[in-house]
Amino acid sequence: MPRAELEALQLERLRSLVERVAHVPFHRDHFAHHEIGTHSIRSLADIRRLPFTTKNDMRRHHPLGLLAVPRKDLARIHGSSGTTGKPTFVAYTARDLDIWSELCARFLVAGGLKPEHTVQVAFGYGLFTGGFGLHYGIEKVGAAVIPAAAGNTRRQIEIMRALDPEGLICTPSYALTIADAARDLGIDPRSLPIRLGHFGGEPWSEDMRREIEEELDISAFNNYGLSEIIGPGVSGECSARDGMHIQEDHFLVECLDPETLEPVPEGEPGELVITSLTREAMPMIRYRTRDIARLYREPCSCGRTTMRMSRVTGRTDDMLIIRGVNVFPSQIEEALLRVEGTTPHYLIEVSRPGTLDEVHVKVEIHPEIFSDRMDRMQSLCERISREIHTVAGIRAHVDLVEPRSIERFVGKAKRVLDKRNIQN
Question: Its Gene Ontology biological processes (predicted)?
Fold first, then answer.
């Protein structure tokens, strides 16, 4: 769709959204105080007149205080785990579910999925949106689904070898866990039948993509979404893999400075703020995702006209401040994978034994690199430390650990142990 037509559609849907949520108390009070109505939205720029929505707003209106439709119209409810506070719930009408399936189908097809394929879904099913969203997206394409769910890695491999799926859906870190487990079973991971993977649920680097592709001999595609907005399906990569195409007919995305809340220049990192234009049950207006990424508007070689976003480089709320320097775990990962012999399995430990922060990075290395020669290990530590300083701008103590000694995770990998919070 030409940009002018797309933006006209967005404006029409934004005005409709404002009208649809006007009766929701959270929005009604703000609209009344600032005299906002559909008459206030004359251009897309007028979205800045609307209030932000945050995770805390959802918690304050727990469990379903942001509903924009009667409870009887709901078809499904998902939710977060609540590991960082009170769990939050998100609701869907039947039409929401149809749209969600379509959005997932779009990026799956853009990333090579065909109706004749079979896909193994190794995401969790349940309140978590990932498994169900991708499941129905695969079915929308016409492909077959193996709902293997998360965990039991040995069984995942047995299923792959028995049913020959071409596709794999899971977190990127779990894809590497599958490769490790196959090797432990005496199976060459590259001999597994999968040939493409769609990975999401956690930030990952371009270096990690290369690692996954080399380990499993597949093409790896990135996608992005979050349950508060709809789940997976907000954006996804095409065959060019030059950023994730945002589904702009359904989402209006801003990229703002997280401190000033002003727009950042195009191509500069900022916090993604997303408005869901078509969701019925629980539409979000200017939801602060806390995810840091970049937006690009130049044309893509694939021919799609939608704006693209970079991979998520971190979150404003898992960002570490080390002696005044902002550091994201993904920066540490990028540094590690620049050094031959390291793996993407690591743990960052931050402490404050005195008045200054100290960072220790535990790093797994490949078995053939591990040595009992102290000078070789010390040299490797120094190379890793230099790369961390180059990429992240901090000095870190590097501890090399044996292969498979850092805990593996089925879902989102836990990369940071901040002991400063314990001491405080």
Answer: phenylacetate catabolic process
Q: At what angle do helices 206-216 and 172-184 cross, to 10 degrees?
A: 30
Closest CA to 146 of 124, 112, 108, 118: 118
Evaluated on CA atoms 348, 338, 178, 236, the torsion sign reads positive
Encoded tokens for 46? 């007028």
- Cβ(289)–Cβ(273) below 8 Å: yes
Q: What does the pLDDT look like over 259-308, one tens digit per residue?
A: 999 999 999 999 999 999 999 999 999 999 999 999 999 999 999 999 99
Kindly provide the residue ranges of all beta strands, DSSP E only, lying in 305-391, ordered along the sequence. 308-309, 314-315, 320-322, 325-327, 342-351, 358-365
Strands 118-121 and 167-170: parallel
3-state secondary structure of 72: helix
CATH topology of domain 320-423: GMP Synthetase; Chain A, domain 3 (3.30.300)
Which amino acid appears at position 196 of this protein? L
CATH 3.40.50.12780 in the chain is located at: 94-314
pLDDT single digits (tens) 376-413: 889 999 999 999 999 999 999 999 998 889 988 777 78
Q: Three-state DSSP class for 177? A: helix
Tokens of residue 399, six digits = 């501890």
Side-chain half-sphere exposure of 225, counting CA atoms within 13 A: 30
Task: Please state whether 362 falls in left (phi above 0), alpha (psi between -120 and 50) or beta.
Answer: beta
Instruction: Quote the pLDDT of residue 423.
Output: 37
Cα(95)–Cα(107) distance, integer angstroms:
19
Distance of CA 74 to the CA centre of its chain: 26
Residues contacting 65, CB < 8 A, separation 6+:
25, 26
Which class would CATH give 94-314?
alpha beta
pLDDT mean over 158-178: 95
CB count in 10 Å sphere of residue 233? 28
Helix (H, G, I), strand (E, B) or coil at 207: helix
Nearest 10 degrees: Cα torsion 190, 192, 196, 202:
-80
Contact, 300 vs 396, CB < 8 A? no
Mean pLDDT of 144-150: 96
Tell me where in the chain the CATH 3.30.300.30 domain(s) lie.
320-423
Please give the angle made by the CA atoms of 109, 78 and 120, to the nearest 5 degrees.
Answer: 40
